[in-house]
Amino acid sequence: MMSPVTISPGSQPTGPAASALEIMLERARAGLNRLTPQQARAAQLAGALLIDTRTLEQRIEIGDLPGAICIDRTVLEWRLDPGGRVTIPELTSPDALVIVVCRQGFSSSLAAASLQAIGLPRATDIIGGVEAWIAAGLPLSDAPADVRR
Fold first, then answer.
1. Fewer CB atoms inside 10 A, N or C side of the chain?
2. What angle in degrees, to the nearest 10, is found between the helix axes of 107-117 and 20-30?
């Protein structure tokens, strides 16, 4: 029996052998300037786009982030393609700081790397995701979510 590989939010894989997914995650994160929840909130207040890719079920269970634009992971690249035909109007420049957030900061790293690959070099994510946001005492929103399809 193989020993388990352990990854906690913001860490590197440990254990006898990293899986292909863990290696992919490590490579994705190597190109990101990942933000703490506090840094992400400050950047959002300064004009960065905060993109929440969590499922509706996760948002109902945990809550929504103030000012976040909710975009399903399945259409993320289409909605944030610089110069694309269905790009959200808030993305006004390929140089925009786009911060992706998921529940724990894993899938958001892969999503941010994908956004960098399509021409958003400053795309990044939040270390620890929404769970770290809440643990840091940052606000949740009572307003209806801004969902883009």
1. N
2. 60
Provide the residue ranges of all domains of the chain, joining segments of one domain with +. 38-148
> What whole-number distance in Å separates Cα of residue 39 and Cα of residue 79?
24
Superfamily name and number for 38-148: Rhodanese-like domain (3.40.250.10)
The secondary structure of 59-72 as a DSSP string is HHHH-BPTTPEEE-
Structure tokens at 134: 């809440």
The Cβ of residue 90 has, within 10 Å, a number of other Cβ atoms equal to 15
What are 22-75's pLDDT values in tens digits?
Answer: 999 999 999 999 999 999 999 999 999 999 999 999 999 999 999 999 999 999
Nearest residue to 103 via CA among 141, 129, 139, 137: 129
For tokens 């035909």, what's the residue?
Answer: 85
pTM: 0.88
Pick the closest to residue 149 from 70, 49, 51 (CA basis).
70
Q: Is 39 helix (H, G, I), strand (E, B) or coil?
A: helix
Longest dimension (CA), the chain: 51
